[in-house]
Amino acid sequence: MSIEANNDLQHIVNDPRTVIYIDMADQHLERIGYTEHGRKHAEFVSQRAGYILEKLGLPEKSIRLAAIAGYLHDLGNLISRHNHGFSSAFLAKDILAENGFSIEDTAMVMSAIGNHEDNGGEITNEITAAIIIADKTHVHRARVRNRNFISFDIHDRVNYAVTESRIDIDSTKKEIILNLVIDTAISEVVEYFEIFLTRMLLCKRAAEYLGTKFSMFINNVKLI
């Protein structure tokens, strides 16, 4: 599902608060050395979350709310990286309410956003599961801001080494498949798991909640 095809999402994307909050959040993270967490990341997570639920045949409402939650999930980084899931949820509340969302839908999106972090989030609905997988699988060289290869830390190096990141859904086999292409001349595969193992395990839990299994291929080799 694209942003253009989701009118409710388009209103949220164009809300001035959304624009400013995401831009300021991204600026904050840039200054403390994080990869890109701006509008491109928001759009990526939004579209991938919606795609996952759409391919699994979930209801249109769930797809729509997952896309919205995915777009708003990182607003709270403008306040602090610490517990940004909670602050993102509360910043999203007024944006959703004032764009005509029901209390029920607002609460569902807030719950998904508030539980998307990998340090204690609980998966209690399909929207949370979708944005966790979409967010935690967004690793790609396009997110690296630092262009000085000599000064790369492990996060820069691993992200920069990933030249392709694709999610495939096999609805027949009930399987969510992450396909990565990693340039091993830049980063060894083991470094990916050194920094992202917890996130991949969270993706596995999220996939199980959706009644599927999570598989992962790196350079056409199955690792999970």
Protein architecture, described:
- The protein is an alpha+beta fold and 224 residues long.
- The protein has one domain (7-222): Hypothetical protein af1432 (Orthogonal Bundle), CATH 1.10.3210.
- Helix content is 54%, strand content 11%.
- The chain is built from 9 helices and 4 strands; from the N terminus they run H-H-H-H-H-H-H-H-E-E-H-E-E.
- It has helices spanning 7-14, 16-31, 39-55, 60-72, 84-97, 103-114, 126-136, 154-161, 189-209, and strands spanning 162-170, 175-182, 213-218, 221-222.
- The protein has a 4-stranded mixed beta sheet.
- Helix 3 packs antiparallel against helix 4 and helix 4 (60-72) packs across helix 6.
- The longest helix is centred in the C-terminal third of the chain and has 21 residues, at 189-209.
- It is globular.
- The protein starts with 6 loop residues before the first helix and ends with a strand.
- Residues 1-5 have low confidence and may be disordered.
